[in-house]
């Protein structure tokens, strides 16, 4: 038993070191970069080169996110709030929905005391997008790179996704592998920080907020096209993400629709 | 310096004082809010009844994103407590949620005392006795209860 415990501690320590290295070198949310930067990453890789070419026809820029297991939620949070900066109507709709979500979560028996803390910080970030002038973009960027704000936004988005899965548990149960209930799945894979996101997380969050997300999948699959999936199916995408195995970054279209 | 973890721990402490759950208490140590001392009183109608079990809780700056390390300082005999006082409890590992606060952690450990999980043992002797020889199990637990008065 003793040796098991110390073995565990060694593994945990090693994990910590890897995490520290990543957090020292990659920002939570990076600057906007030209998409052609990807070409250099896969210089000797003909499959990816073709796919990047396809991607470059549709998209102009990429914004990288830190690969810490929270990248989907963080990328979505930033990209959607950035999208809302100049869209008053969509912003108002979202602000109202975000405001009301607190009572919805409390009704689902999330602990009120801690929930309020996350909700307050989440609304502070949402409100920063609605108020103020020119500096809103840099303020959003600053908040998303400040761990305290950024992680609380991620936590809150995870709770919203979890709440949606629980409310529609009967439906989502069909998509959960193994012998887990929806609640178990939420407790193990959705609510804890640093847990990577799968389709089900994306479907849950996009449905809960009623915001379309298009994910471009770049992998070693056949063909030269980077396949797109829209969540929820058939919804106009407001946020575009690039998926490479295990990681999500933000994409910016060449000719953005609203 | 105020960091998100420290701010949140101040809130946790305030809540624990204003709305204390029955049978548990906890407070930061004098000079370090990241290390807490806590006490769990043995729940009624269990062999742990009347015991006052001391614990330490160590937080990192990643709290509440990551759970704290919680250890019993008092000697324990329980299927889910390691020899060094470490606790095998899912919410302190893979089911941790940032929505749990100190109050929730302590009440979860308290209910672990009432309802051990002998299928994921940290102390295999305790787990075996709990399943097969409840009298001997209770005797060993009672010895810890008495020890807890002395500590």
From TrEMBL, chain A:
GO biological process: protein K48-linked deubiquitination; proteolysis
Entry keywords, A to Z: Hydrolase, Protease, Thiol protease, Ubl conjugation pathway
Documented EC number(s): 3.4.19.12
Recorded coiled-coil stretches: none
Sites marked Interacts with free ubiquitin: 203, 217, 219, 243, 248
Residues annotated as catalytic: 68, 71 (nucleophile), 247
Known catalytic reactions: Thiol-dependent hydrolysis of ester, thioester, amide, peptide and isopeptide bonds formed by the C-terminal Gly of ubiquitin (a 76-residue protein attached to proteins as an intracellular targeting signal)
Any one GO cellular component localisation term in the record: nucleus
Sample GO molecular function, one term: ubiquitin binding
Organism: Nezara viridula (Southern green stink bug)
UniProt similarity note: Belongs to the peptidase C65 family.
EC class (word): hydrolase
The protein's name in its UniProt record: ubiquitinyl hydrolase 1
Residue stretches making up the OTU domain: 60-254
Automatic annotation (TrEMBL), chain B:
Keywords: ATP-binding, Nucleotide-binding, Transferase, Ubl conjugation pathway
Residue ranges constituting the UBC core domain according to the UniProt record: 4-150
Taxonomy, superkingdom: Eukaryota
Known EC number: 2.3.2.23
Gene Ontology annotations of biological process type: DNA repair
Coiled coil segments of this chain: none
Catalytic site: 88
One Gene Ontology molecular-function label: ubiquitin conjugating enzyme activity
Record SUPFAM superfamilies: UBC-like
Family stated for the protein in its record: Belongs to the ubiquitin-conjugating enzyme family.
Protein name (record): E2 ubiquitin-conjugating enzyme
